[in-house]
Amino acid sequence: MKFTDYRTFKTALGGKLLELEIGKVCEMANGQVMVKYGDTVVNVTAVMSKEPRPDIDFFPLSVEHQEKMYAVGKIPGGFNKREGKASENAILTSRVIDRPMRPLFPKDYRNDVTLNNMVMSVDTECRPELLAMLGSAIATSISDIPFDGPCATTQIGMINGEFVVNPSQTQWSEGDLQLTVASTKQKVIMIEAGANEIPEDKMIEAIYMAHDINQTVIAFIDKIVEEVGKEKHSYVSCSVPAEMFEAMKQVVSPEEMETAVFTDDKQTRDW
Predict the structure, then answer these.
(1) Where are the beta strands (DSSP E) in the chain?
(2) I need a surface site. Which of 114, 136, 187, 219 has the fewest CB within 10 A?
(3) What's the CA gap between 13 and 158, in Å, rounded?
(4) All structural domains of the chain with their residue ranges
(5) Are 36 and 51 in contact (CB under 8 A)?
(6) pTM
(7) Whole-angstrom Cα distance, residue 118 to residue 105?
(8) Which CATH class is domain 7-239?
(9) What is the edge-to-edge ordering of all strands in the sheet holding 7-13?
């Protein structure tokens, strides 16, 4: 079978080969990428509804990270012959994908968008969570869904005082640092971290290291978008009317709102 739009892209990342396949499966999705890193494979799709959802005042983004037993070579058996509900790790991975990406969509966008990350194969040396984060950004960037990206994510671990870029599952679980940093071209947009007691300057160094790596990944994504990216579609703006904002300012001035938001004293906020 010949896939007319099938493309592959490769780059080195953290001492391993990152390989992307686009256009071989899920052709009806707005954006799709198969991400391979070591023997870990995650298929990511970005899908958008044709019309905005009526009567809502938020952006309906849904992120699904699907872990299946077959990805590690197991088949459910015994009493439970079906896959169970989403694991805690799957839920947290979905959230860590949502958090940096949601602000990059237009604030007045109300079309449903679903990012689906299906783990096809797992290599314990290459964590699938990282591939889901990168794949979600890539699939959305090359799609026709309005998105002010790309963004990129890097994970940093620490073993015996030395940083490890995109650590294995063992290094991630047993190391002294579990740092996830998401960035755009301009700045760091999300930091999630857990650690044993480490010097503050080492933490800052790790954040800057991850941000620098993210810039190389973003440059790689930009090249992919230039070659296979779709033109972003026009959409119906669902922004709050300017008249409503003006009416709100009559009730609470911008200065009073800023004081209420940034003050630490509860009595001042209530006043």
Answers:
(1) 7-13, 16-22, 31-37, 40-52, 61-66, 111-121, 152-159, 162-165, 177-183, 188-195
(2) 187
(3) 17
(4) 7-239, 241-271
(5) no
(6) 0.87
(7) 22
(8) alpha beta
(9) 7-13, 16-22, 31-37, 40-52, 111-121, 61-66
Contact 33, 115 (CB under 8 A): no
State pLDDT tens for residues 215-265: 999 999 999 999 999 999 999 888 877 788 788 888 888 888 888 888 887
Write out the two tokens for 105: 């969509």
Task: Report the candidate in 3, 17, 23 with the shortest Cα–Cα distance to residue 224.
Answer: 23
Among 135, 121, 134, which residue's Cα sits nearest to residue 210? 134
**Amino acid making up residue 222:** D
**Residue 81 — pLDDT band, cuts 50, 70, 90?**
low
Which residues, 6+ apart, have CB-to-CB distance to 226 below 8 Å?
none
Query: Token digits for 135?
Result: 């794949």
Average pLDDT on 151-167 reads 96
